[in-house]
């Protein structure tokens, strides 16, 4: 007898081996579905149990090839995508539920890996000049490694905190490029076009980094594959990202308000000279904001933002990795 975690994040069972085999045949469960044998305390994927190997192989077998003429017509109608998509439709509630369960099952590993990545990418930002550049260069490979740690935990594979450095090899450059290009273009869109284009870019490229880390796609293929996959179910992906990153979204709004209030307060005495002598005004502003009390305000706000990120990051990544498995997994189904 087994208990099973369904696509809605809830436990079902106990059910028999025969019942689980039927669910696999009906595409209600697959090799990544988490189950717990009777008397056990840990959850493992169905693929790790030999009694389900035959039915899993049958359920995942590809359909018979189409006749040559039909296949050629299909190729002419629609080009083959760079990477194979999963067939599962994203269920926001299921991804949130599975993300929460994943955090509960592997709290030490996932929190430890997240904290280490956060430290390695945050602390250099407070080192003048070269620190932020160093952080920018290593952030992509580090977050790619973090995504792999979460994915392996989700798949029931062997895992350890040190795996966050697993992308410091052949994948380093494409991960670095994906991180830098997507971040710069998103920020440029937010700065020049009233936020919305920048937000859309972040949503469409939400899976680009993990596609490089997990599928070893190159820079262009990862961006294109993520764009096409998200385009097929944009609203569920956008809703998932909004819910999982809500603490950071709220804090960003708060920090923008605080910065504007602070700037208006400090710049008040300079208002009269601002239009008469713009260069002198700019020099005066730079001199004013270099004072310790102003520097302290911005450093404090930056630390607060990073702490909110640390608290938000583990659950957001856990839910996003379940969504990735649903959309891009080889055997996506209603239950994962």
What report would you give on this structure?
- The protein has 336 residues and is mainly alpha-helical.
- The protein has 2 domains: 1-62, 2-Layer Sandwich (Dna Ligase, domain 1), CATH 3.30.1490.40; 89-331, no CATH class.
- Helix content is 65%, strand content 4%.
- It is built from 15 helices and 4 strands.
- The protein has helices at residues 17-25, 53-59, 68-77, 92-105, 107-122, 130-155, 172-192, 196-204, 208-215, 219-232, 234-244, 246-267, 271-274, 278-289, 292-328, and strands at residues 2-5, 11-15, 34-37, 44-45.
- A 4-stranded antiparallel beta sheet has the order 2-1-3-4.
- A hairpin with a 5-residue loop joins strand 1 and strand 2.
- It is elongated, with a radius of gyration of 24 Å.
- The two termini are 19 Å apart.
Record keyword descriptors for this entry.
336 residues, mainly alpha, Dna Ligase, domain 1, 2 domains, 15 helices, elongated
Helix-strand layout with pairing:
Layout (H helix, E strand, L loop, with lengths): L1 E4 L5 E5 L1 H9 L8 E4 L6 E2 L7 H7 L8 H10 L14 H14 L1 H16 L7 H26 L16 H21 L3 H9 L3 H8 L3 H14 L1 H11 L1 H22 L3 H4 L3 H12 L2 H37 L8
Helix pairs in contact: 4-11, 4-15, 5-6, 5-15, 6-7, 6-9, 6-15, 7-8, 7-9, 9-10, 11-15, 12-15
Brief overview:
With 336 residues, the chain is mainly alpha-helical. The protein is 65% helix and 4% strand. A hairpin with a 5-residue loop joins strand 1 and strand 2.
Distance, first to last CA = 19 Å
Largest sheet: 4 strands, antiparallel
Rounded average pLDDT:
81
Shape: elongated
Q: Which segments are poorly predicted (pLDDT under 50) over 5 or more consecutive residues?
A: 62-87, 331-336
Proportion of residues in helical segments = 55-70%
Which band does the percent of strand residues land in?
under 5%
Structural class category? mainly alpha
Number of contiguous helices: 15
Radius of gyration: 24 Å
Instruction: Please list the strands of the largest sheet in the order they lie side by side.
Output: 2-1-3-4
Number of domains: 2
User: What is the count of β-strands?
Assistant: 4
Order of helices and strands: EEHEEHHHHHHHHHHHHHH
